[in-house]
Amino acid sequence: MLPRERIAEAIRGAARGGEPALVAFLTAGYPQRVQFRSHLAAVAEAADVVEIGVPFTDPMADGMTIQRSSQEALRQGVTLQWILDELAAMARVRAPLLLMSYLNPLLNYGYERLAAASVAAGVCGFIVPDLPLDESAGLRAALDPRGLALVQMVTPVTPPERLARLCAASQGFVYAVTMTGTTGHSAATPAGVLEYLARVRAAAKVPVCAGFGIRSRDQVRSLRGAVDGCVVGSALVEVLERGESPQAWLGALRHDAG
Amino acid sequence: MSDDKPDAATRARWLEQLRAGAFPDAQGRYGPFGGRYVPETLVPAHERLEQGVKRWLGDADFQREYQQQLRTWVGRPTALSHAPRLSQRWGADVWLKREDLAHTGAHKINNALGQALLAQRLGAQRIVAETGAGQHGVASAAACARLGLPCTVYMGAVDMERQAPNVGRMRLLGATVVSVTSGDQTLRAAIDEAMRDWVADPEHTYYLLGSAVGAHPYPYLVRELQSIIGREARAQIQQQAGGLPDLVIACVGGGSNAIGLFHPFVNDASVAIVGVEAGGRGAGLGDNAAPLSFGRPGVLHGSYSMLMQDGDGQIQETHSVSAGLDYPGVGPEHALLQACGRVHYEAAGDDESLAAVRECCECEGILPAIESAHALAGARRWAKAHPGKRILVGLSGRGDKDMLTLSQTLLANAPAGAR
Fold first, then answer.
1. How many CB atoms lie within 10 A of CB B397?
2. How do residues B298-342 score in pLDDT, each as one tens digit?
3. Which residue of A159, B85, B278, B398 pairs with B363 in a disulfide if CB–CB is 3.0 to 4.6 A?
4. How confident is the model over A81-91, as pLDDT tens digits?
């Protein structure tokens, strides 16, 4: 199975039970660099897909939590090379891994070299928030031959024609941003969001995962049937920040209490 | 997109395309530079802006209103002043394009007014802007007050301290000034924060970007609005001096005053063009804000251009005594102008630029902004190497805003009356 198919399959398989799959985000090396492997193993045990955040100095699509975690990770010397080395050295985890990175660290690393190192590290794909599809030919040319995914984001303000193009091009899953704004703010799921997610699903050939602002079991429950998966980012980073168990927190997202 | 140096044939082709007016191309590129690297949420907003620029910039009614405001409110055309005493000292024929005389004290108003008029036609309900030295913030606040648009300005906490008078001016002009305490707390962090505001409501908010940077169509839009500097200067110097200059020179941070001055001279083969970046304390990473002189290509704030970055592609903090030049990137068209060889870029340091502030004050009775003094420092150098030539210097703004910095540097070292 190609790496990008592993991502889609993990989401579809998890969603078969009726609950949305969980795509979990953590900033590499935060809060402590030495905890990276154990945190990743724990999160990968409880989630279906894991996004590893590559810290960047100017995370312009992110809110306060991920700005803070990125800055601290950089201060501790976390780099793309360090992340790839750690992944290559540690035991493979069950959940497929994606790297979420702003473009400049990837561009600086070199696309060909990046694709080869990603395969060696067991990375299945990429999410690049400041790389729209229109500018992505260079990166895709390096990822495609190795079966690595480049996930496209869509948003509530994406026009229909563009939505169709993004959904057709997305690999692994379609990342449906549920609101405008940066990551980390809490979002409700009003009827407008469900209507939007239905449009995304109708256009997508790969699973659809909703993200930006998902923090609670209530939100996950309200998305049942509307999406194949939910992305949790800032809230999980805060769980790790507080030193709490990521497995317990992710488990509580999947099941009603009591 | 590659770090490899382009070969001679490629550079010659870019130069030919440049002269033919082929940039930006349909993808918003200037050769390999430029483009549109923005979060998906902002793609429709950039597409709407691109359509708006096509629809309105050449529109007769839009231009009539813009030109009338420039004439009766901004005070254009700004003067071209001969600088007899600098000419004598430098052994050159020196002319100053006086953007310091424009309303609010710098060239920034040309762009702020034009974009605010555009925002109004696009139905924007509020304006957000970033500012470094505070000049773009003041210009935006003034233009928004004039047109009755609510305005929020993001400004780094460090800049708010060193440019305190401009913070007060913005507030008097009715703008909300938001202190940015994230990142490096200067212009770059202010842009990050203004983008985050825009991402939250891209359909009703207009982002009034202050320099020739960012994603397409901003570098093009800002160039078009600032080119009035070069068009006026080109006509004035021919009329007043009897011919074109041998050199056109301007300071380059993001590069809006420079692209505005340079653009109308690009096809004048006899005219040399030089851009002067902020050399800060020296050539080391973190000691300057001179990406064309010391940087490598990369992507920041929506475009591919020259950038101050470390070996991992992380954006490097910069240093300059001048807040308006203290930025790790530069407009993509400047990167092309350098790559194809049409414009030469070099850096002038803090001390050299402060000395140029003093010299301009004492010789010509003009207090230039520290930003603009970088151009004077570069002009002085060029004059020494090319005696007897005619030099046109872009004096992009006035130095009143810099009094705090000047009192801690020039005035602290040599109190008034000591010389």
1. 29
2. 999 999 999 999 999 999 999 999 988 999 999 999 999 999 999
3. B85
4. 999 999 999 99
Residues of A marked as catalytic = 51, 62
8 Å CB contact of B203 and A157: yes
With an 8 Å Cβ cutoff, the interface of chain B facing chain A consists of: 1, 27, 35-41, 43-45, 182-183, 188, 192, 195-196, 199-203, 298-302, 307, 309, 311-315
Write the residue in B1, B40, B200 that is nearest to A158 by C-beta. Answer: B40
A153/B192 Cβ within 8 A: no
> Looking at the domain that runs over A3-150+217-254, which CATH code has it been given?
3.20.20.70
Q: For A139-146, which contacts have Cβ atoms below 8 Å and span 24 or more sequence positions?
A: A139/A106, A139/A111, A141/A111, A142/A111, A142/A112, A142/A114, A142/A115, A143/A111, A143/A115, A145/A115, A146/A3, A146/A115, A146/A116, A146/A118, A146/A119
Confidence (pLDDT) at B200: 86
B305 belongs to the catalytic site: no
Q: Do the Cβ atoms of B43 and A158 come within 8 Å?
A: yes
Asked if A81 and B182 come within 8 Å (Cβ–Cβ), the reply is no
Name the residue facing B43 among A79, A132, A138 (closest C-beta).
Answer: A132
The residue ranges of every structural domain in chain A are 3-150+217-254
CB B252 within 8 A of CB B292: yes
Selecting among B87, B97, B99, B130, the annotated active-site residue is B130
Domains of chain B: 28-69+108-222 (3.40.50.1100), 75-106+226-413 (3.40.50.1100)
Q: What are the structure tokens assigned to B341, written together?
A: 């060889």
Cβ contact A81–B312 (<8 Å): yes
**Mean pLDDT in chain B?**
95
Q: Quick one: which of B150, B124, B109 has its CA closest to B45?
A: B124
| Catalytic, out of B50, B108, B193, B346 | B108
What backbone phi and psi angles, to 5 degrees, belong to A231?
A: -100, 125
Range B238-265 average pLDDT: 98
Mean pLDDT confidence for B152-169:
92
